[in-house]
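Comment thread on ticket #2218

A.B. wrote:
> Attaching the input chain for the structure job we discussed in standup.
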Amino acid sequence: MKFWISSLSLLALFFVLTLLGVNEYFFFAGFVVLQFIVLATAWNILGGYAGYVNFGVPAFLAVGAYSAVVLFKAISAPIVVQILGGGVMAGLLGLGVGLLTLKLRGIFFSIATVAVVFILETCVNNWRYVGGATGLQLTRPEGLWLFSTYTRFLFFMMSLLAVIAVATARYVQTSYLGRGLRAVRDSEEAAECSGVPTLKLKLIACTVSGALMGVAGAPMPMYLSFVEPTSIFNLSYAISALGMPIIGGTSHWVGPLIGAVVLATVQQVVTVTISSELNVLVLGVLLIVFVIAAPDGIIGLFKKWKRFSK
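C.D. wrote:
> Ran it. Output below, let me know if you need it in another format.
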């Protein structure tokens, strides 16, 4: 109950902010932070709970984005339909990738997910309907409903998606699915011997994780008013999605949320004050620091502090 009260209060605050005369850059930057929360949370469902490191994040993000583009061009679908379509298509991709690769383990699974990125990027580069390699310019509406600009509307939509993603991860962690995935992470052979349907659980996790990544990618074309393969298939998304749960902690649903807020906020500050080219350097430094000094992330540090303070 506390989670839902806090979530609804935060959504109400964000809604009020969109109606006030807040600087427009706040909503541009806030969209990125919220998108990172969805990505980190989605990645952790498979990578954190089950221990399957997925480097194919850009593929799922791109499927969501390009599904939205197709729906917008074909039927002028509103953003809600675009998000639903992107989530469904990315979820189906997750199911398909899971069926083909989840019997692989360790580095072999990770390499297979990277291959998916390059395959899909090649397909999109040669698909003229969505702009091909040169990209596609989109014209977004001026405003919607009570929102004075479309950017404010997208910010609020992404805040809703972030709440849905975190709520999904929270449910998965406390459910039979989460317990089964943790058993897979600790020892897949032992889990199978204990009667855990490992392949079924991994397929569900891969589908849910992929769908949430697609949902995170669907609003991007309208957010940027432009979409092109080079940027959306950028492997930096995969590194960021991996890094945020590591920074926050992979063992709890709060970990990716904290890691995403920390990383995205620092990167936005660096972009404004120094240069956007330093974003990857910031991520690399934070990863090195946390892997060496706090392998269990911020959540692990907090648990240690609580034990020592007693």
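A.B. wrote:
> Thanks. Noting for the ticket: The first helix runs from residue 2 to 19.
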